[in-house]
Amino acid sequence: MTTPAMALAPAPGGDDTVPHTGIGALGGPGTRLLAGPARRRETLAEHCERLGLLPLPYSDTAREAVIDVVAASGLVGRGGGEFPIVAKLTAALRTSGIPIVVVNGSESEPASGKDALLLRYRPHLVLDGASLAAAVVGAPQIVVYLHEDTGATYASVMEAVRERGQLPGMPGIVVTTCASGFVAGESSAVVSALSGGVPVPRRRSVPAAVSGIHGRPTVVSNVETLAHLGLIARFGAGWFRTAGSGAAPGSTLLTLAGGVAHPGLVLEVSAPVSLGQVLAEHGGLAHPPPAVLIGGYGGRWISGGAAWHAPVDRALLRRAGVSLGCGLVAPLPHDSCGLRVTVRLLDYLAGQSAGQCGSCLFGLPRLAVDLRAIVEGRATRGDIRRSHELAHSISGRGACAHPDGAVALLESALEVFSADVRRHIHGRPCGGGLRGWFPVPDASAGASA
Amino acid sequence: MKFDRARLVANPALCDGHGICVLRSPDLLTLDAWGFVGVEETEPLSGRDLRRARSSVAACPERALSLVPVHVATGNGARARADSSQ
Predict the structure, then answer these.
(1) Across the interface, do B33 and A398 touch by the CB < 8 Å criterion?
(2) B38 touching A, CB under 8 A?
(3) Which residue from A168, A251, A302, A370 lies 20 to 30 Å from A449 (Cα-Cα)?
(4) Contact criterion met (CB below 8 Å) for A181 and A348
C-alpha cells in the first residue's frame, strides 16, 4: 500500500527526526506555513516547485490512509474551537449525501490577521489542504468563504483559483463573500449563510459534518487548519509532530496586537517557546507588560508576569484555563488602562450580538455599562458584586459562545485589574489612557438577524 | 414520544420570554434578568419531572424547548424503567 505522505521535496522546517522549535515571520527561517518568499504572494509555479505536487487519494484505501495520517498528526482547528479536523473528515466520509468543503476565511476577530496573511501570500497551501479534505470525503466542490471587505485577500484567492485551473483532477472552487460581523464567521453562521439564510449562528443538534449546507455533509474548516493539512498530506504526521508538544502538536500562528512594535505582525511559533520570548524578540518588549489579552476579544486577560513565562502551547494554556483561540496576543501598554480597553472591547462585542438570544442582546450592553460605571468611579462594591452575578447568569445561555466570550473578557479584566478597580471606585483612577492597537471596526458593520 | 428518559433543551435563539414554561416546570427552568429561559443542569428526566417537562415543551409558543431522548444501555434498562414509574 502506498502512503499518501510521500515527501516529494525537503520538508519546510527540517526533517521528521529533529525537533522543530522557534519563532519566524513570513519567509523567515524556522517557518513551515510561512516558509517561501518574504513579503509577497507565492504563485502556483513557485508553490509546486518548493513543495511538490499535492498527492491526492483516489481509492478508498488511500482515503483511509490519509484519515489515519491526519488522526496521527493530532491537528485541531485553529479558528478558536480546537476541534480535531479528523473528526469532521470522518463524519463527512461516513455520511451519505454529496459532501462539500468550506474554507472559512472570515477571520472575524478584528485584530487577527493570520488567516488573511495565509490567503494573501500562501493561497495555494490553503487550497491544497481544502483539496485534500475534498478528496478524502469525496466532495466535488470547495467554497471559500470571505468577508466582503477583504479586497486584497479576495483578489489573491481569485487569482489562485484561476492558476489552479491548470492542475488536473482538482475539485471545483467557488469564492463567496458575505456581510462582515463578528458572529458571521462562526461555523454554524457560515453554514446558514451558504444555505441561503442570514449569517447568524444557529443552534445545531447534529454537526455540520453530518448535515450542513442544505443538509449536505459539510466540512467547515479554518484557513490555518487547512494550510497545516496541505503540509501533513506531503510530509506526514511524524514530521508535523516534530513541532509543538505531544498534547498540542504542530506549529501555530499568532497575531501580535496591543502595545507591540509592529501591530498586526503574524508569527509562526513552534513550542517550546514562551510568550515572553515572542514579545521580546518580535514585539519590541524589554519587560513584562502589565497584562496580556490572549485568544481574541472574547479571550482572557492574564497578568503580565504570568503571561511572560506562559508557554505558547494550546494544551498547557487550556489546562491553565486560557484558550489560545485564534492566536491573538495583545499586551497592554504600560500607559494604558486595562479597564478602559476592556470597556471598548465589550462595547464592540455587545454591538456584534446577532440579536437572537435575550441574554446576549440585553446582557452584553449591560456588562459594558457596568464596567464603564466602575471606570468612571460611579460604582460601589455592591455594584461590582451584582455585575459578577449578572455575568455568571449570562454565561452559557446563548445559541453560540459569543456571550461566553464577552463574559470571560469581563471576568478576567476584573480579576487581573483588581487593583485598578479599587482605585477607580475610590475616585483615584489609574490615569492610564486608551493606548495600544485594539482595533474595533465601524459599528455599522455589525450583523443583524 | 415513546421514551421514558430525556433531557430538556432550550434553543435560546427562539425564546421570546413568554415564561409559561417556567410556571409549569419551576424546578427545571429558570428565567434570566430579562425573562429569557435557561435549563437547569440535571440528570436525565423521568417520571413526574418528565411529565412536567413535556407540559412546558407543549406550552411554548415559540417551540424553543425540546426533549432529547436518552437511550439507556440494556443493562440499566430495568433500573431506568423503575425510576420512571415512581
Answers:
(1) no
(2) yes
(3) A370
(4) no
| Interface with B, mutate which of A390, A397, A404 (most B CBs under 10 A) | A397
Strand order of the sheet with strand A218-222? A172-178, A141-147, A100-104, A218-222
Q: What are the start-end ranges of the H helices in B40-76?
A: 47-59
Q: How far apart are the C-alpha atoms of A379 and A381, rounded to whole Å?
A: 7
Per residue in A195-222, pLDDT (tens digit) is: 999 899 998 888 999 999 999 999 999 9
Quick one: which of A393, A366, A403, A371 has its CA closest to A182? A403
Distances (CA, A) of A419 to A177, A339, B60: 45, 11, 46
Size of interface A-B (CB pairs under 8 A): 46
Rounded to 5 degrees, what are φ and ψ at A190?
Answer: -65, -45
Asked if B15's CB is within 8 angstroms of A357's CB, the reply is yes
The SS3 of residue B21 is helix
> Closest by alpha carbon to A80, among A112, A38, A102?
A112
Q: DSSP secondary-structure letter at A81?
A: T
CA B45 – CA B42 distance, rounded (Å): 8
State the Cα–Cα distance between residues A252 and A235, nearest whole angstrom: 17
User: What is the C-alpha to C-alpha distance for residues A445 and A340, in angstroms, rounded to an integer?
Assistant: 22
**Residue pLDDT, tens place only, A124-150:** 999 999 999 999 999 999 999 998 878
Read off the pTM. Answer: 0.90
B32 contacts chain A (CB < 8 A): yes
